[in-house]
Amino acid sequence: MSVSLNPRVSDALKTVLGNSVLPRGSKGFEEANRSYFSAFANELSPSHIVQPTSATQVQSLVKTLRPHLLSGDCRLAVRGTGHSPFASSCNIQDGVTIDMRSLKGILLSGDKSTVEIGVGETWEPVYTELGKYGLTVAGARDAHIGVGGFILGGGLSIFSSSMGFACDTVAEFKVVLGSGELVCANPTQNADLWWALKGGLNNFGIVISITMKTFPAGDIWGGLTYYVPDVFPRLLERTCDFVDNETDSDTHIMCSTGYGFGHQVTTCVMYHTRGIENPPSLQRFTSLGPQIERMNTLRTSSQLGFAGELAKYTSHGKRQYWTSITIKSDVSLMKAFHAKWQETLGLVQDAEGFIFTFGLHPLTKSLLESSARAGGNAMAIPASDGPLFVVLINPIWTSPGDDERIFAVVGNMVTELRQMARESGLLHRTTMSLGGCGEESFQRLRDVSARYDPDGIFQKGVSGGFKLSDKNL
């Protein structure tokens, strides 16, 4: 049943933003509310969507809503570009959703060493604008992903082996606190908040813009290599050899096997960020066969070109989610994981429009060492823990009638995978949840929250995928 906001809250919103407030049922509401990456977010219906265009308007919104958030009369969601698959991360039923997509802007500093990016941007215009100056940043591998959520979640880029997580290249955040105050967070000003925002998600305030370090953009060699499905076990062996032994920090890979449209296929996405064609470090993958050569895309291109390529494989508006397990490098365990994935696929592949991906995203020692040199982040993974693999499980389907069984079957599989890794001593504490950041880091995050949000606005009144106040973390 739909619930209307307290009339006082509704009136207050209109006083602050006027025509930029979209009540449920108004012109433009449905278009804005049906544009999320995940169908589950599309299916939530806030009472109002508000669309600020400036930091000042966001400040006014927070100050206006603050008493209602504290009293429980209102709950809030903050949307960047809406790419999270978890419904409550960026939308909310019967509350107020702040849609940040109008906070755009790409402002290069005078010396061109940094660029300030509005959180309403996606990476495609960022790469395009910086390319005019021969520059780039360590942004997302998919051009259509939003800047804000990607950085606040940590972020892997094709430059991660040499630069760490994408958030490690952030020079400054501008953020509106629960008090409505706009502050800067950088290594010398509010440094603890700067650290916390690097992977700490939406627990501390509403980020307005992110300033990142730039560097020269050059040719990149890489793309996708497709293999027949039976190659995947051998690809696992070579992937473990890569993360255990490779010293070339100008490389980046992702390996996966997947099912869709009645077929399985195995892929390796690989890049050499200095543009060396088929370098020795990647020949363990380019020489592996048999390949489906007509589908391969290896070439010399730009970051924009490769990010645009991966964006074509993103499915918007589908019923989908992802979950992850972080493990230490071990061929036997990964083969056992793959066997369990195959077994699970057999139970649900008849679901309408079903697509199922089992992906491996390496966290190399070089990545973790680069992250530490940059000042660290909320994930707090010591280099000594590496190398690691983030195992990403991603089911996609079309019918609501399949929701219950897919969540159950895939959920059981993930539980079994975690138990297998735990029993073998190879499960790493890092997860998609903030509870996986380690006890010391988690307590530090709570201390930062208490300092910058003493009334707990962003714990009690603002939804999100993972909150510091969640007792299950």
UniProtKB/TrEMBL annotation:
InterPro entries noted in UniProt: FAD-bd_PCMH, FAD-bd_PCMH-like_sf, FAD-bd_PCMH_sub2, FAD-linked_Oxidoreductase, Oxid_FAD_bind_N
Keyword Zinc part of the UniProt annotation: no
Pfam short name (any one): FAD_binding_4
UniProt keyword Flavoprotein, yes or no: yes
Domain FAD-binding PCMH-type: 42-217
Keyword set, alphabetical order: FAD, Flavoprotein, Oxidoreductase
Family stated for the protein in its record: Belongs to the oxygen-dependent FAD-linked oxidoreductase family.
Name of the protein this chain belongs to: FAD-binding PCMH-type domain-containing protein
Organism annotation: Apiospora rasikravindrae
